[in-house]
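--- STAGE predict ---
source: upstream dedup step, 1 unique chain passed
mode: sequence only
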Amino acid sequence: MRRFQNLLWSRKAFVDSVKVYNHSYIYMPAFSMKTGTGPSLRVYYTLEDFDAKQAVLFANPNFLRDIGKFWKGKGIHAKRLSTGLFLVSAALGLCEEVTIYGFWPFSVDLHGKFISHHYYDNVLPDSGFHAMPEEFLQLWFLHKSGVLRMQLEPCEDPLIQSSA
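--- STAGE serialize ---
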């Protein structure tokens, strides 16, 4: 909404910025809340108008509601779960193995180095909106019990590994 002026004026810039993702999906919460419908549809039509390689997936509001209830029962009390937790929940239902990266609610990494947050503006999440530490804790429990794998360090570059 900010970076691309709600896709009212910067449509080509948006399409150019997602080209790096090739034939991937862009997840949009079009029908989960009123404020998401307009921007989600603008993303869909923008990608269609420019014949982009990416496809838009719209979240099912019933799935979002049920997942929200599930995680609330596990102790995550937030106005809204993060998009990441919704996608991890979907992956756990669809995939045999799930590895996640980027679910680190602290401002420094394991080595004390500052890390960025949020995928588009590097702003820390509003603690009154999302409950990132609670989400992290639940995902850590799933990691420790073997349900998923949580990658806390950057992934190794395969080119560097193969030459060693």
